[in-house]
Every structure is written in structure tokens, then in C-alpha cells.
């Protein structure tokens, strides 16, 4: 009997199962890394402002608009119907404008932001047609068409109304 007759024939490494099983984990990690990199490069973060320095300088103008609303005694109550297709604003204060700009800002997704112009239908009462998507919470900004003053607040759609008062 020869020594080669006792030993089974040697198979190449790629014919065995264990090398493939051991390579599966690192291969999945590499593919997941490329998928993550693709998602990171193709979906920009809309919350980051490119011109942060200019935005920081503009904060004083925004505060002046809040003080202008306070000086005029503005206060507003916003009500939306159940289908969120109609928004009504009741406003008090001096020298009310004929048109208001309503800006509904989604907290995390800028694609859901909506802007409407409400027209005066009676003294102190404004109305706008709206298409508001369902959201957990909105930041609301109310201002005149010339953007000389503003009122801001936060609205939870489970509530039926929001009251906006100027920040002091």
C-alpha cells in the first residue's frame, strides 16, 4: 500500500464551505458601508444652513420684527378645519394689514414646509386656502407681506387652534 492511497484527495480551498462562511461577514460590512456612503452623499441634510454667518448676522433684523409686532400690539389666533384645507386667522392690534403671510415650517423635513397668503375677509379676520400634510408638530410664522413684523409659535395639530403673541 502506498502513502497516497490512504489520504483522501486534496480539494482546493474554494471548494470548502468554511472559507465562504467566514468571508460573508466582512463582505456584508463592506457592502453596507458603500450603501451608507451613497445615502450620505445623495441625501443632504436640509437643517444645516450653508450661510450660517450671514444667518447669524440677520438675527438682529428678526428680533426687530418681533419688537415691531409687540409695539403694534399684535396678537393672532389661527384655526384650521379638520381636513386642513382652510386656515382662518383672527388678529388684533393697530393698523392691521390687508394681507398676511402664513408660513408653516415642518420641524425636520423642509419639503413639507408650506407658505400661504391670507386675505382679509372682515376687519381682523383673514382666510387662506391651505393644503397642510399631516405632521406631528409645526412651527408657525405670521407676518405682513412686506415682512416688517412677525409673530411666531408652535402648533400641535391635535389641538384645534394656536395663539401667536409677540416675543418680548
Distance between the termini: 102 Å
Category by helix and strand content: alpha+beta
Shape: elongated
Alpha plus pi helix count = 4
What does this protein structure show overall?
The chain has 168 residues and is an alpha+beta fold. It has two domains: 13-42; 52-164, Sandwich (Immunoglobulin-like). The chain contains four helices and eight strands, in the order ααααββββββββ. Strands 7-6-3-4-5-2-1-8 form an eight-stranded antiparallel sheet. The radius of gyration is 30 Å and the shape is elongated. The N and C termini lie far apart (102 Å).
Describe the SSE topology.
Layout lengths: L2 H4 L10 H26 L9 H6 L1 H14 L2 E6 L5 E7 L6 E8 L7 E9 L2 E5 L8 E7 L5 E6 L5 E4 L4
Antiparallel strand pairs: 1-2, 1-8, 2-5, 3-4, 3-6, 4-5, 6-7
Name its key features:
168 residues, alpha+beta, Immunoglobulin-like, 2 domains, eight-stranded antiparallel sheet, 4 helices, 30% helix
Give a nutshell description of this structure.
This protein has 168 residues and is an alpha+beta fold.
Amino acid at each position: 500500500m502506498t502513502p497516497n492511497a490512504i489520504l483522501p484527495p486534496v480539494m482546493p480551498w474554494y471548494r470548502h464551505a468554511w472559507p465562504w462562511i467566514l468571508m460573508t461577514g466582512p463582505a456584508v460590512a463592506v457592502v453596507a458601508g458603500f450603501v451608507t456612503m451613497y445615502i450620505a452623499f445623495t441625501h443632504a441634510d436640509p437643517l444645516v444652513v450653508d450661510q450660517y454667518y450671514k444667518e447669524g448676522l440677520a438675527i438682529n433684523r428678526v428680533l426687530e420684527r418681533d419688537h415691531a409686532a409687540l409695539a403694534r400690539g399684535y396678537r393672532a389666533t389661527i384655526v384650521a378645519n379638520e381636513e386642513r384645507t382652510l386656515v382662518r386667522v383672527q388678529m388684533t392690534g393697530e393698523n392691521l394689514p390687508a394681507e398676511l403671510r402664513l408660513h408653516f415650517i415642518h420641524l425636520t423635513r423642509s419639503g413639507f414646509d408650506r407658505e400661504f397668503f391670507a386675505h382679509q375677509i372682515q376687519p381682523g379676520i383673514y382666510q387662506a386656502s391651505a393644503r397642510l400634510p399631516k405632521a406631528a408638530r409645526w412651527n408657525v410664522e405670521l407676518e405682513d407681506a412686506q415682512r416688517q413684523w412677525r409673530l411666531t409659535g408652535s402648533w400641535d395639530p391635535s389641538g384645534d387652534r394656536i395663539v401667536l403673541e409677540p416675543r418680548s
